[in-house]
Structure formats: C-alpha cells, structure tokens
Amino acid sequence: MDAPQWHARRALWADRARRAGALALEAVAPTRCAGCERPGSLICDRCLAELTPIDPAHACLHCGAPFGDLLCTECGGGDEEGGFAPDGDAAAAGARIPGRCLAAAVFEGPLPRIIRAYKDGGERRLAPLLAELMVDAAIHAEEAAPERYGGFVGAADAVTFVPATAAAFSRRGFDHMEEIARAFSALVGLPLADVLVKHGSSDQRALDRAGRALHARGAYEPVGPVAGLRLVLLDDVITTGATLRGAAGALVAAGAVHVDALALARVW
C-alpha cells in the first residue's frame, strides 16, 4: 500500500471512529432542544416558531430595536437623524457608529435559553444553526427593505466579530462569536477578518447602561489590517449598544470605511 492509499485509509478509519463515537454518545445522551429540552434536535420546530423576528422595515437603524424607524424609544434615533453618537477617535471620521444595526430576533421566549446553552453551556453544535438565523435575517433585510439595508452583506468586504475576553475564553474554552462568525462567513461567501481583541475581564451582563458604556470605551483594539474595508460586525445580543459602538468605533478609527452591525438578538 503506497502513501496516498495509506493516508486515505487512515482518514476513512478516523471518520468511522468519529461516527461511531457520535452514535454512542447519542445513545447515552440524546440530543435535546436547547430551548425546551425536547429530544430530537438542537432547536426544535416549536421553539423556532416561537422566536420573534424583527421586521427590518421598522427596526431602528441605529440600535436594532424592533420599532425605531420613525423615533426609537431605546436610543432616540430614527431613519433621518439621532441615535448612537460616535465615541472617541471615531468621531473624527464623522461616521455613524455602527453604520447600520440589525438584530435577527427579540431576546425573549426560547432564544435566551438557546443562547445560554451555547454560550455558557458549551453546546458548540449550535454555532452553525445560530449563524444560519443571522444570515437569514441579513438576507431578508436586504430583500425586504433595500432602501434601509441594501448591501448589508452583499456590499461588504469581510465579516468580523466582537471577541471574548481572555478570561471568558479561558472559562468557556472557546470564543462563542468566533465560531458563529466562521460559519456565517462560509455561508455568505465572505472572508473572516479576525482583527479585534478585547481588553479587560468583567462580564457586562452585571452592568447598567452607564457601566456598559464606560466598560466598552477603549476595550477593543484592532490587531489586523482593516483600512478601506466595509465590514459586517457580528455579536450575540444587543442590550444598550455599548459593545457594538466600542468595537465598531475601534474599527473605524483604524481605517475601516464602513461597519454595519448584526446581532442574533435584541433586548427590548
């Protein structure tokens, strides 16, 4: 048996071993829905039906809130003016930070449980499914509201993501948004730009609006080239928008010409 045949045979054996291991694990601990724990799938049809999608025709362009096209009660913005102001060095660019904001669904029903199962429970098999939900939201926004979200993904040069802190990575064993971003970039056919690092270690879920804004300011640093790029910035949950402002502002300050933000969920 020559070397190519040996490597092919070894790959076949490894694949069979993985399949056997997966079947054995499924027999001992069957797959259950992350939203309701029904057996059979990671996200069942019932939980998918219970998600509350955000209509891109009426979402706030500035913060992703479900109803903010005329006047957003969350950030004070609308389609014409207002909304999140640029922070720090990004203000010099005169850009809206982020450029446009979109969330796939409202943070309610089974979605918080699904996100916790992935983010804190370590159910990493959810990453491609959550990426699909975000891709569907972005494509639907481009098609349903082209005057507001036209080119959201279609005109982008690359996909990037809000990274976890070193402490969060150590605690979880993976960067939850990196895995979603890799699946997202493969689905939309855009390169992944892993260009941000996050400094600090505090968990923003325990902070109020002012605390989140203070924590996010200066927390993100670009460590890769972004000059001249149009980027889609991914995050899991928008609460106040401080995280996206901080991350997008750092990218714009480093030379990105446009940064749109896409999240899986919007607290509202």
TrEMBL record:
Gene3D superfamilies: 3.40.50.2020
Domain of life: Bacteria
Coiled-coil ranges from the UniProt annotation: none
Signal peptide coordinates: none
Family of this protein: Belongs to the ComF/GntX family.
PANTHER family in the record: DNA UTILIZATION PROTEIN YHGH (PTHR47505:SF1)
Protein name: ComF family protein
Native organism: Enorma phocaeensis
Lineage, opening ranks: Bacteria, Bacillati, Actinomycetota, Coriobacteriia, Coriobacteriales
